[in-house]
Design goal:
The complex is a heterodimer of chains A (about 260) and B (about 240).
Chain A: H1 2-22, H2 30-38, E1 69-71, H3 73-88, E2 105-106, E3 110-112, E4 122-124, E5 131-132, E6 139-140, E7 145-148, E8 151-166, E9 169-170, E10 174-177, E11 197-204, E12 207-208, E13 211-216, E14 220-223, E15 229-233, E16 239-247
Antiparallel strand pairs in A: 2-3, 3-16, 4-16, 5-6, 7-11, 8-13, 8-14, 8-15, 8-16, 9-12, 10-11
Chain B: H1 2-23, H2 25-35, E1 51-52, E2 55-56, E3 86-88, H3 90-105, E4 121-122, E5 126-133, E6 142-145, E7 148-157, E8 159-163, E9 166-168, E10 171-175, E11 178-186, E12 188-190, E13 193-197, E14 202-205, E15 211-215, E16 221-229
Antiparallel strand pairs in B: 1-2, 4-5, 5-16, 6-11, 7-14, 7-16, 8-13, 8-15, 9-12, 10-11
The chains are: A alpha+beta (about 260), B alpha+beta (about 240).
């Protein structure tokens, strides 16, 4: 009986060793590794294993600015004067050679000095006669106000003056549409359904129930996300301002106007 | 008798071997394979995730909850942002600089953020502070911040900023024995660019780029810094 038990144990041990030998995974080399990856094993389809990074970068995005920049107040004042002169001539042209231009920066988290005018500084004017506004086509002396779901706007007024109208409600409010689709000079922006709709951008005028601030060069204004804002520039002087747009977090930059 | 006994050992050996093999790794794998039932993928997904006819397709997300119309009254995306705008006139901004310069000359130490209304201004994504650098600052430290970018507006006074390059003798900021990772300090900057500053100028400094401000007028240098979080970076680790 004792011998039978011993024999049973020895044969079980031999069976375990045989099982371990035949069940051992083959080393992952060459085509075997590729075939496993293609089958969705280990790193997934076609994706090699990525070794852990001890200190993962916080902002790995490519093409993020890494160079500090300085902007003189003299430069932005010159831009205002050029744009005011252009407006008085009725011109909305892009910068001519030799015109002062501000080179802004676009980060994943914020951007500034990025305007469709090409000057880096936004210029607003009061028109001599009512005309269809640039976005919704409301007949007005002024451009439409804005409301952005995805960004905070920090404005620095650099030239001219007038009034900021903020908070309250935008009347005649419409969804924004991508201003870059057809280029400039095809107002108003919201005519037809040619331009893609921006679901978090709104335009319209006037603003009802808001606060009005008299604004002059050097003033600051910060507009939280979702808060309407509108500008009423001084006749013939207009107003120029820089906008620092701060993304409120993981909002798609392509949906921001 | 002996022949019969030896004959009886054969099944003992077979049973033992089978039991040992079954308990081993290979046997376990076979058991798992036989027990697991892998559902067959649709033809257009088999072998390659998110591909239809060889073309990558984004995953489809369906929600039974209709998205509400985005409105500033429905605070779904930014529950912790301010409700209203804030306006600072240039007169108040200049007064803040004058106030800090006078306090400096009188030898008073004060928090610069008390010089202008609504400062400091905090949100989840960005925060704004007033800084004042006296002309006779004994040790104007060079700073480097991993967690945020800076947009700076000079409010008053004149001076310089050295930005970019590398910190000289960098150390991690230590506050009462607690190290603040990501906040580096140095005695100076090598290889940076020097900019001359005056009232109304702006400076943009990317995250993790060192900078050192110095005043060269008796009124010192006052500036507002907007710190833009590099995204989901803990504010309590920023200085």
């Amino acid at each position: 009986m004792r011998r039978t038990a011993l024999l049973l144990l020895i044969s079980a041990f031999l069976g375990y060793v045989a099982s371990a030998w035949t069940g051992r995974p083959a080393p992952l080399t060459g085509s075997l590794m590729q075939s496993q990856a293609a089958a969705g094993g280990r790193g997934g389809p076609g994706i090699p294993d990525i070794p852990p990074v001890p200190n993962p970068p916080l902002y790995p995005d490519p093409n993020q600015p890494t160079k500090p920049m300085h902007y003189s107040v003299d430069l932005v004042r010159r831009i205002h004067e050029v744009r005011k002169a252009n407006a008085l001539r009725g011109s909305v042209a892009q910068p001519a050679p030799g015109d002062p231009v501000l080179q802004g920066q676009s980060y994943r988290t914020h951007s500034f000095g990025v305007s469709s005018s090409g000057y880096g500084i936004t210029y607003r004017q009061k028109y001599d006669t009512p005309r269809p506004s640039q976005a919704t086509g409301v007949m007005s002396y002024y451009d439409d106000g804005d409301q952005h779901e995805g960004v905070t706007d920090f404005l620095i007024l650099v030239g001219g003056g007038g009034q900021f109208v903020v908070d309250g409600e935008i009347e005649n409010r419409e969804y924004g549409r991508n201003p870059w689709t057809l280029g400039r000079g095809v107002p108003p922006r919201n005519t037809g359904n040619v331009r893609p709709l921006l679901p978090g951008e709104f335009h319209g005028q006037p603003i009802k129930g808001g606060h009005v601030y008299d604004a002059k060069a050097g003033d600051w204004l910060i507009v939280p996300p979702g808060v309407p804002h509108w500008w009423l520039p001084t006749p013939r002087e207009g107003m120029s301002y820089l906008i620092v747009k701060v993304n409120i977090g993981l909002y798609p930059p392509a949906l921001i106007d | 008798m002996n022949g019969i006994t030896r004959l009886a050992w054969a099944p003992v050996v077979i049973i033992g071997f089978a039991a040992g093999y079954g308990a081993g790794p290979s046997g376990s794998a076979i058991a798992q394979r036989t027990n697991a039932t892998v559902p067959a993928l649709p033809a257009d997904q088999s072998g390659a995730l998110n591909q239809v006819n060889g073309v990558h397709q984004p995953p489809e997300f369906k929600s039974t909850i209709p998205a509400p119309l985005l409105s500033h009254r429905l605070r779904t995306m930014w529950p912790n942002q301010p409700n209203e705008s804030t306006f600072w006139s240039i007169d108040d901004i200049r007064n803040a600089h004058r106030f800090l310069a006078e306090a400096d000359r009188a030898g008073h130490t004060m928090d610069p953020n008390t010089a202008l209304h609504d400062f400091p201004y905090w949100t989840r994504t960005h925060a704004m502070f007033i800084k004042h650098v006296p002309q006779n600052a004994r040790r104007p430290l060079a700073d480097q911040h991993l967690g945020y970018a800076q947009f700076i507006v000079i409010m008053g006074g004149t001076g310089t900023v050295v930005a970019g390059g590398q910190l000289t003798r960098p150390t991690t900021l230590n506050e009462r024995g607690r190290e603040i990772p990501g906040e580096m300090r140095g005695s100076a900057i090598t290889g940076g660019e020097t900019f001359t500053l005056k009232d109304g100028d702006w400076v943009s400094i990317p995250p993790n780029s060192p900078s050192q401000f110095k005043a060269d007028s008796v009124d010192g240098l006052t500036y507002m810094v907007m710190k833009i979080n590099a995204q989901l970076y803990p504010w309590d680790l920023t200085r």
